[in-house]
Amino acid sequence: MKVEFVASGTDSEGALVVPVSGVDPLSGRAKALDTSSSGTVSRAIGASRFKGRKGEKLEILAPDSLTAERLLLLGAADKKGGAHEFDRFELMALGARASAALLTSGETLVQIETAEVKSSLDPAQTAAEIAAGFLLRSWRFDKYRTKEPEEKKPSVTTLRIAADDPKAAQAAWTALRPVLDGVLLTRELTAEAPNVLYPETFAARIEELRSHGLEVEVLDEDAMRALGMNALLAVGQGSAHESRLAVMRWNGGADGEAPIAFIGKGVTFDSGGISLKPGEGMDQMKWDMGGAGIVTGTMLALAGRKAKLNAVGVVGLVENLPSGTAQRPGDVVKSMSGQTIEVLNTDAEGRLVLADAIWYTQDRFKPRLMIDLATLTGAMIISLGHEYAGYFTPADEIAGGLDAAGRDTGDKVWRLPLHENYDKLIDSPTADVQNIGQGRAAGSITAAQFLKRFTN
What we know:
The chain has two domains: 2-175, Leucine Aminopeptidase, subunit E, domain 1 (3-Layer(aba) Sandwich), CATH 3.40.220; 192-376 and 417-452, Aminopeptidase. The longest helix has 26 residues, at 166-191. The chain is of the alpha/beta class. Strand 14, helix 12 (396-409) and strand 15 form a beta-alpha-beta unit. A six-stranded mixed β-sheet has the order 1-6-5-2-4-3, sandwiched between helices. It has a five-stranded mixed β-sheet with strand order 7-8-10-9-13, sandwiched between helices. A three-stranded mixed β-sheet has the order 11-12-16, covered by helices on one side. The radius of gyration is 26 Å and the shape is elongated. The chain has 13 helices and 16 strands.
C-alpha cells in the first residue's frame, strides 16, 4: 500500500475520512464539507444517532458536490461530548477503524484528515501513528485464497494522510515505517503454512535480509554437530527437514562494542514429538516459531532504522515430529555447554533449542544483554491469559527497561519470579538436569530456571 502526505483540506477523490470531536460534531472540516455539499453532512447527522463520540462512525455515500465518492466521519469526542485527547495507541486504533470500514469498500484511495485530532503527541507524529494503525489493520494473509468474492477483496491501494505540515508528517512516517515492516514480516512468517515454512525455507527467508544490510550466517546440521549442539539437533531428528541455526548481525554501533542479543525459538511445527499433543488445535502449532519470527522482524526493523547499536539475532530452527528417528522420553543428550539433559517429555522441546542457542550466542558474541523470545509454555497463558506476556530476569534494571518498553509500545509484560528453590524441581537422577519439572506446579518458572542454567 502506498502512503503519502498532503496538506490539510486537500480535495480528495475516493473515500475521505474526517475525525470529529467536540460538543458539536458539525464543526471544523466537517462543517466546511457540509457547506460544500449543500447541507448533506448536517442532514446525514440529523437522520442518524451519530454524536461524534469516540468509537462512533457515520458513512455518507456520494455526498453532493464533493469530489470524494464517500465521506466517513469518525467520532473523536469523549463521553461528555468534549474533545478527547488521543494517546499513541488510540491514534493507531483510529486509523485501524478507518481501515476496517473502508479496506474492502471498493475505493482505491483513502484520505484521512488529521489536523483536528487532539493528541498527546505532536501533529506530525499524530499523523504518522494514524497511518500506522491503518496499515497494520489492513494486513491480511490471503495468499492461498483462490475463490474469494471480488467484493471481499481489499481494494485500497493508496492511503493519503492530510496534515498541517505534510513534510514533518512524512519525516515522522519515515522513522516509523521500518518498525512496521518488522511487524509485518513477523506476521507473515508466523502465519505461513508449515509445509511451506520449515527450517530450511525459514533460513532462506532470513538470508534474503542481506539486501537490507544485515549480515546473515546459516549453520547446517553438520556445523551444529561439530559445535556440540546436540540438544537442538535432538529436537529435529524426527523430521525429514534438517534443522538450522540462523545468525543475523547489525553493526550500527561502535567497533568492538558488545552487542545486544536476541535469541528466538523457531519450532516451525510442534507436534510434541513422541510425547504427542492432542489433535484438537494442533494446527496452531505452526505458531511455535513465533519467537524466531519476532527476532527476525526486530533485526529487519533495526536495519531499516539504521539503529546506532550493535545487535545480533540468533534463531534455532527445527521441526518436532514423531518418527522412528525421533528422540524418546528418557533419552539423555549432551548440550553445547557440556551439561547433560534427561529428556522426560519431548513436548518440552523449546528449552532444548534455546539451551544451545543461548550458549552459542554468549560464547561467540559476548553480548552485554541477551533477550530470548519464545512460545515456551502453555502454563504462561494459564497464569496471565492473553493480555500480558510473562518474562523472567534476575536483574531489576533489565526488568525496569522491559516494563517501560511494554508501556511505551502497548505490549504489556509482567515479571515472574526466579529462585534457587525451584531448581530442585528440575534436578535429574540420571543427568545434570531434566527438561521438565515435577508435576504441573510452576511450569513456566521451571522452564526459566532450566534456561538459566545455560547462561553464564
